[in-house]
Each structure stands twice: as structure tokens, then as C-alpha cells.
Amino acid sequence: MFQLVLVNIGNHFDLKASVFQAPRRGIYSFSFHVVKVYNRQTIQVNLMQNDYPVISAFAGDQDVTREAASNGVLLMVERDDRVYLKLERGTLMGGWKYSTFSGFLVFPL
């Protein structure tokens, strides 16, 4: 999915699987930004926690050539929880090349 990691302190983001695995229990901040391709379609991207959708972002304007969708959340995460993005519908421009996914620990518990 993702091809590049800019910051991965602690190596808890698995680039090959594109999954973050929490090293400890706490409140984490996650955000993402995705760009859809140039055709008339709708995209839906979910932020997943252990295979359950937490938040979604949609882009579906039929009259534009480019459109982005973003969302963010503070999330209670247990140790070893997995957090990742899942494309539910549509196609992203350049795959995940023009998309970002970020997360960090806000408050350990």
C-alpha cells in the first residue's frame, strides 16, 4: 500500500503491511489525507482499529478532476492494537503515493 515512511520512531509502523501496531496503551492521534483519481467516482477510506472502522472520509464530487478527503481522530488504543487505512470504495490517484497516514501517542495510560 504505502511506499515510503518519513518518520517511524520505534518502528511500530510496518511499511509492507501498512499497519501501525501500538507499543503501549494510551490515547493516540491519527489523521489521513487521500486523493482520488481523475474519473467520475466516489472514494471511501476508513481508518480501522483491529478490523473495525472507526472513522471514514469520502470524496465524490463528479464535476472536479481532483479531489481530496481527510479525517482525524483521538483514539483509545490498547497495546498491540492494529490501526490502518482501508479503501472501501473507488481508486486513489497513483495508488497510495499521494496519500498520507499519521499517528502519534498523545497520552500514555
Automatic annotation (TrEMBL):
Q: Where is the C1q domain?
A: 1-109
Q: Tell me if Signal is a UniProt keyword of this record.
A: yes
Q: What is its main location?
A: secreted
Keyword field contains Transcription regulation: no
Compartments reported by the entry: Secreted
Keyword terms: Secreted, Signal
Which Gene3D superfamilies is this protein grouped with?
2.60.120.40
An annotated GO BP: maintenance of synapse structure
Q: Which domain of life is it from?
A: Eukaryota
GO cellular component terms, alphabetically, are: extracellular region; synapse
Q: Which InterPro entries match?
A: C1q_dom, Cerebellin_Synaptic_Org, Tumour_necrosis_fac-like_dom
- The name this protein carries in UniProt is Cerebellin 2b precursor
Organism classification, top ranks? Answer: Eukaryota, Metazoa, Chordata, Craniata, Vertebrata
